[in-house]
């Protein structure tokens, strides 16, 4: 099999394992997606599975840890009463029991409806709802007592943790009365901060290297994520479903500071790992050459100096042992002086 294709298949398997995990846990969802309703209203609870292989399963429903003896995927409450409020969970054969989903039943004139769970990156939907059959007007939304505007009975905005309030006038007992409702939103982390690791560090030159970008928690299991890898601030692998970065034969240039980044498909949530510094070690021959240079060069240098000193001493000894002779210039000067003296001493005729 082609090495590149083989690696892609392995990466796809690893990515699927990252999302699914070894333990499957269903999720309870509400339709409509509000955690608070009035008495007399209807709502459907659904046990959702991430994997399609769990179809045609027998489902088990629990309310406040009591088995409801319902075996369908959906549980419908046609006309809610106060007794229907509580914590609901579901399970199928071979799966873990779901996290609990809290349902509230109200008799108030006004309620502020919100989703059971709000994840980071989601669009927040709120509804200022008045009791069915009662006329209402002038709906206003607040956050931490700050006016957010009056845009009808629903609000749409970014998911931000905080306390939200709505107000409206409701007609009862022949008059319009002012009513308020409050809800606290806690934005749930969609996935944990990624961790970047590798099998060994440092790593030798010309060897394989694999970086893994993993997360300890993926809260919403059906969330699709993308991964990218950076070295010294430069992208070395674009965003994709692969949570691994692989180098078949490392080079010294592959040394540096690595970071992996994770984002949702719509880029609404982005997170980065801690930096991981990786040092690629040179081959053994390079180390041996370096040792040879460090050890042998001084020895050669000392040997050269000693040899030069020996030759210098030998040359000096040979020079001092030879008899001194007049140079040709000195002999010429002597002959000239003698000729001059002879001329002066010879008598003239």
UniProtKB/TrEMBL annotation:
Keywords: Disulfide bond, Membrane, Signal, Transmembrane, Transmembrane helix
Keyword Membrane: yes
Listed Pfam families: Ig_2, Ig_3
Ranges annotated as spanning the membrane: 290-310
Residue span(s) of domain Ig-like: 26-106, 194-277
Entries under InterPro entries matching the protein: Ig-like_dom (IPR007110), Ig-like_dom_sf (IPR036179), Ig-like_fold (IPR013783), Ig_Fc_receptor (IPR050488), Ig_sub (IPR003599), Ig_sub2 (IPR003598)
Protein name: Ig-like domain-containing protein
UniProt source species: Xenopus tropicalis
